Amino acid sequence: MSSCINQVPSTATASATANDDESQHVLERSSRGDDFSEFLQTLLSDSPHVGQEVQRANDSEVLVLPLREWSNDQAGRSIHQDQSSRANLLHASLLRKVTVAYAIAKLLRHFSQHVDCSQYSYDELEHKIFSLDNFTVQMSRDESLDVGWEVVGVDMIAPPITLLMLTTAFSGCNFFAETCDDITGRNVEAIITSTRISDHVTLSNERPKNEESKLCYLFGVLLHLLFSGEEAVCTKLCDPQMDNKSHGISEEVVNEKSAKKKTSAAFPSQQNIDLLREFPTLEFESNESNPPPLDLIHQTFRPLIDLGCPPSLSHLITNLLDCRLGFLAPDDAYSSLDAAIEDLHLLLQDPARFLVEEYNVEAIVSVGRDKLYGRSKEEQKLKDIFCRVASTGKNEAIFIGGFSGCGKTSLVQSLFEAVQATGGYFVLTPKLDELQTRSPLSALMSAFDELCKLVLHTNSLEILAEISQKLVDTFGASSYLLARVIPNVANLVSSNFINQPIENQVNFSSLCLIVQGFVRVISSFSRPIVLVVDDLQWADKTTLGILLAVLSDVNGSNVLVIGSYRDNENEHSALVEFFGMISSFNVTICEIHLDGIPIDDLNAMLADTLRIFPRLCKPLSSLVYQKTRGNPFFALEFLHSLIDRNIVSYSLRDKGWRWDLDQVGAENITENVLFLLTSKITSLPNDAQTALKAASCFGNRISVAVVKELSATPRYHDLKMTLDKALTKEFMDCDGTSYRFVHSKVREAAYGLISPGEKDRYHFDIGMALQTRIVGQNTDDDVLFAAIDHINHGGPSLIYDPSHRISIIELNLQAGVKLMKSHNYTSSHSYLKTALSLLPDDRWSSHYNLSLQCHFHLAKAAYPCGFIDDAKALLLTVIEHASCLEDKLDTYSLLVTVHHLAFKDISKAFSTCIEVLKLLGEDLPDRDIDKHELVAIVAKCKSLFQRFAGKDFLQLPRNTCWKSLAIMRFYSELSSVAFFVEPSLNLFLVTKWALYCLNQKVICKHTPGALVSFSAVMCRASISSEICIGCKVGRMGLNMLHEMDLAMDELPRVHLCYYMFIGIFTEPIQACADMHRRASELAMNLGNNLMASFNMSVMLHRSLYGGSNLETLKVEIESHWILAKQHSLQMLEYILKVYGEVVIWLIGNCSPVTNNVLSDLDVPEYEEISFMYQMFLSLFLGHMERVIFMAKKWESLDIQLRMKEPVRFIYNTFISGLASACWYRKGRQKAQLRENVRKSLAILKDAAELSKWNFQNKFNLLNAMNLSNQEKNAQSSKEFNIAIIAARSSKFHHEEGLACELAGIHNKRIGNNEEAMRLFHLAQGCYKAWGSQVKVQQMATQIELVKSISQTGAISAS
After folding, report:
1. What is the pTM of this model?
2. Residue 441: band (very low, low, confident or very high) from pLDDT cuts 50, 70, 90
């Protein structure tokens, strides 16, 4: 038969004949030795047929070959090949042989566990059991299998045992490594499928050590022959059981040699030679008296390294052969076959590490950095939490704390593969840095920018189109704001939606809302987002606030935030507060603390690093663990330092690592890895140290642009060249955009080389060097901020030249304004504050323009950061020192905004607007206005409006006069403020604004607001024909806003006025609610928290009164309450609590979260709102007497307050009248109740004429109750039906249910129980659709009551 396994007979007959002949040949060779036991001969007779084709379950056909011939075939294939092909064949052969060796070891282990080996002689074991001729190899004929995978089984002939192998791929490469070896490892599962040995007989694992050593040695002999192909010289071997004293070896000599081998740990080949030469007189097991010297015995096994065998495999076999030395065997000798099996499996799992001879020491010792060790539990916890987030859609957070170097980053990165497998987005935020002032928020926003790239590259065109549409639907007119915050969004959204003008600054609140909306669109169940923030201890409050906004979003985002931080290097009060805030929003948090890794995992890491078997590394690992407490980074650095000083060295002769344990133990190192790293850096040349020190001043990374600019200066001319050299020394790496230290501790060590007294000067000199490169240049932002950061770090004490001082002020001002535009107000405030502090005492006279800009921009950055008082003081300083009104206008406008936001200072905002308008030449009263003057001015304004048509306004030119624009701006501010401060003046002031607009005959962005505000006050004046005129003017202003290219920052204000006062008479209330919702979202995006709060409050009122589903409304209220709480919107927060209380009561089955929270605020507006919602709630809960009581309180309020919003007045009138009608039969003051009903009907009739959709059903319902009280039952029933139909057509589920309920009560009273039953069932369905469980239960009670009455009546009748 041919020795090549691919050459098979062409026919089945030929194959069978050849295989039978080959089988007989193998049997004959396997039976050599007449002294073999009868038991083994019996077993041998049942051996498998060699060369026979067999069918394995669920597998292709295999070919069984004798091991010896198979081995020779593997060696002979490469003889006639060229060098490249030969190397590949040798490599393939090596993988196959290791696979077979592993299978043989498993077979022998099975044999030794079930057969007492002591009953066999040494020769029987060696020549019969542990013989190449006792094994056959099963090879698959599937040519598509990878190298080494063709071996699918191994058979042991005597005793007959069959082992099949299931092989799966195994990758030992770290997923984040830049490169990965081409050689694929494999996991091999060995399965014993047939045996003549009884599995019921299992011997003890505690076999004598000498017997285990004998088995290991014989296995080593077998492997040596398998891999070398050379038969050993026919010599006798020493007995591993022999006694040392019988050979004349003293106890002192043994102890001395034992101590020697344990002190110096090395690969065993040289130890073995030394020991053999020390004891040349050992005798054999036989009785021969003149044994050859043992050094000659050793030479009978030719070193496998000399034959080109990989060192790891060679040492493995040598360690097996060392077992013949018994007590004197080196520590590296195997103690059992199980240990050898483990090492053979390692060879298969990672052939690139063990079977490829690439012993470049620098390449070898980098292995340990790319793999995670000792964190399996934590790794599984991360995966479990991610799966929970992906499956539930609920945001969660994981925070990982621990010492530097403990593996926090590696642990987080281990989740990447799982996220990628599920289709999620794994987003890494650049490391936060203590030295880069602007880095925290910019790093986080750059992560969202990278997320856009991931979305673009991982989705199909169809999905990208869907995402684009969702972004447009979510952000609408403010899509351009999203693109301003996250620039790469421009690649996802059409440019038509992002090229819009913007004038408002985007503050922290709007930034949070923008990020929330973006994450909500991008994330999904199929695409969850994992956002990783490294070194969270350096995050500022703005960055933490954005993370909190993302996590607390309950409107459909699917995000897992993972933050890592050092919990031992500085205080974490901000983080503790941050964690508490997250918990307060019911976001699940998992906190993980990392210490050092266990010693076994540390041993595995060092073994992988040195590319040796873990068992060989244990003595060294034990000492390293004691020195480093298991810190992975510290341990690797310690190992590298030992290698650098040759305490651990690689022996080219033995091709293995050697170390002196005494020297390692004597190393006097600190517990801080900085000691090692500092020593390593100081050993570098001076230019390299200087470059690393300069780079360390920039933090963990320094951009390529900065390096380029610094390299163009005389002092740092060789910086780039030197940093490039540092890349090869494993201090830094480069990704093309920046140079980065490989670990933050490396940067700390380099930075620590600068003495504390020199650091300020060092930073200052770097900054000034960069400053010379950017003056008058359009430079990169990285260079600008690097320059100013270093100059500021040095401090003003180092600035001696006045011209330099002014230049530095301008740089700080430029940096602050840039950061404000990118919404980083915290850092912007820092730069601007520095700029202001550097101005001289005579700043207003010597540097007027610079002082004006510094004060104003600092105030503009201060109030979003919460420094309200500082902002006011700065603005008042500008007003005091500015030389003209034009220079003060922006300051006045910002001061009004700051006063307005505080709300308690809203009266100051009013007075400021009045003051500025007077300075601009407007004639305005401080408080009271003559009624005749008011009537006259309103009539004049109405007359002017009648002359204009909508198109006439659109044809007017744009306003370009600064004074006129300022007047329009402050009238706009005044109209909002006066609504709260001076309601009696509001009509007059708004009319003055509209008159000014009409008289100027020009338009600007404030013109639509003037038109809509005037129409709103007209609608508020009374429910009469004035509303029709107001609606016409309001529509004119609304059309102007949408049809002209005007700034969208006025839209929230215009929509608030129109849909709050006008739209309620022209649009369905549900549509009004939706428009207020959109206006609120836009206002938040624009940073106008006040308009956002007003629109949100009105939206919720319209939604509640419009019959929105209560459960949906509850979720929306909760999400907006979280937003209000985050951004300290106290007014909105209180109002939302009231809405939440009402909704929870109406839903039922739960308790309200608060009790009349608005009663604590001494604001009349809030008091009116409180009465309104108590009346609404009491009406639907059936507490009519309480409604009447609260209505009296509401009526006691000032008429102007009650009429401030006509729709609230109409609804309160309806609720009061309906409660009076319901209570009429039980109440005592019937005349007053009748009068309440009459007044209410009159008001509702007028309202229904204006909007049948919103008010007709209310009039019909109240009229039906009034007719019922008058005993006009037929008319009443008809009117009830009309009310029910009207409510249904307007989609008012709650009011349809109320009409059915009251109609049912009416029919029950007149004895029409069947109709009452029907109506109560209808009411129950309506309340169920509304989401009110408490009303559903009430209707169930009514239904049971009617059933009881009907049954009682039936019994009485019978």
Report:
1. 0.67
2. low
